[in-house]
Write a structure and sequence with these properties.
By secondary structure, the protein is an alpha/beta fold. Helix content is about 40%, strand content about 20%. Strands 2-1-3-4-5 form a five-stranded parallel β-sheet, with helices on both faces.
Length: about 140
């Protein structure tokens, strides 16, 4: 976690059961989890949180987890919009789509891509590593 506060994670995943699992498992690990069921809802939640944040220099979430294939906007489209709003936002793409690395825009090369299926311990380890890079 980050200096005594719960790390806040925004999760965008269109599979309801997986979204629920992400949220519960992240909460069990001590994270504050906010969920979105598609790419557009993720952007809307992000913008809403951006307006409410207290410090202008910091991202509204410690991490944003994005599925690649989602309705309305895919994970890469969401990532590009989020980075346009807040260039320092930490992002992670979680996907079963094997060709995602080839499709990701050059601007998104810094995003950690986690292939599905994965072990949740590996996910928590990757999130923890990415969050430590932010400090």
């Amino acid at each position: 976690m980050l200096e005594g506060k719960l790390a806040k994670v925004l999760i965008a995943e269109d599979e309801p059961e997986l979204l629920k699992a992400f949220k519960l498992l992240l909460q069990n690990e001590g994270y504050q989890a906010v969920t979105a069921k598609d790419g557009q809802e993720c952007i809307d939640l992000y913008k809403s949180e951006l307006k409410r944040r207290t410090t202008e220099s910091s991202p509204p979430f410690d991490m944003v987890l994005l599925d690649y294939r989602m309705p309305k906007k895919n994970g890469a489209e969401v990532a590009i919009e989020i980075l346009a709003l807040c260039p320092t936002q930490k992002l992670m793409m979680v996907t079963a789509f094997s060709g995602v690395n080839e499709l990701i825009d050059v601007k998104l090369k810094k995003i950690h891509v986690m292939p599905k299926p994965f072990d949740f311990d590996d996910l928590f380890s990757a999130i923890s590593t990415e969050l430590k890079k932010a400090q």
